[in-house]
Amino acid sequence: MSVKALYDYEFPSMDRAKLFGEDLLVYVHWEGNPIFCSAVCFRVPKTMRFGEFVTSFVVPWAESDPDFDHEAMKHWRIFDEPLDVADDKSLADLGIGHKALLTFAG
């Protein structure tokens, strides 16, 4: 996410990819959910498989909504572009990069 500074900003970002090594910051937003009004951010390895990411991070977070239905998670997108998810592919293989925003409908 970019920030417009009102003055010269000469400090390196503290969340730049270089500082996270083999890990990524991945934002996830549950579109249309009235409880989660903004995205959540997870620090995960680039090599993590998408299915593991969903079951280990996204589902436990989403389960705090009592109406959550794991089977209803659909229409994954990355930066508003459709994302063809495959549980056995890594996040990097799916093109998910540092500070990517993933959204889903549920």
Short description:
The protein is of the alpha+beta class and 106 residues long.
How are the elements arranged and paired?
Layout: E1 23-31, E2 40-45, H1 50-62, E3 74-78, E4 81-82, E5 100-105
Parallel strand pairs: 1-5
Antiparallel strand pairs: 1-2, 3-4, 3-5
How much β-strand is present in the residues? 25-35%
Question: So how many helices?
Answer: 1
Rg computed from alpha carbons, rounded to a whole number of angstroms? 15 Å
Task: Give average pLDDT, whole number.
Answer: 94
| Low-pLDDT sequence parts | none
* Elements, N to C (H/E): EEHEEE
Helix content: 10-25%
- Total count of strands: 5
Give the strand line-up of the largest sheet.
2-1-5-3-4
Shape: globular
| Class from secondary-structure proportions | alpha+beta
Q: How far apart are the termini?
A: 24 Å
Largest sheet: 5 strands, mixed
List keywords for this structure.
106 residues; alpha+beta; five-stranded mixed β-sheet; 1 helix; 5 strands; globular
Description:
This protein has a five-stranded mixed β-sheet with strand order 2-1-5-3-4, with helices on one face. It is globular, with a radius of gyration of 15 Å. The model has no long low-confidence stretch (mean pLDDT 94). A hairpin with an 8-residue loop joins strand 1 and strand 2. The longest helix has 13 residues, at 50-62. It has one helix spanning 50-62; strands at 23-31, 40-45, 74-78, 81-82, 100-105. With 106 residues, the chain is of the alpha+beta class. It contains one helix and five strands; from the N terminus they run E-E-H-E-E-E. Helix content is 12%, strand content 26%.
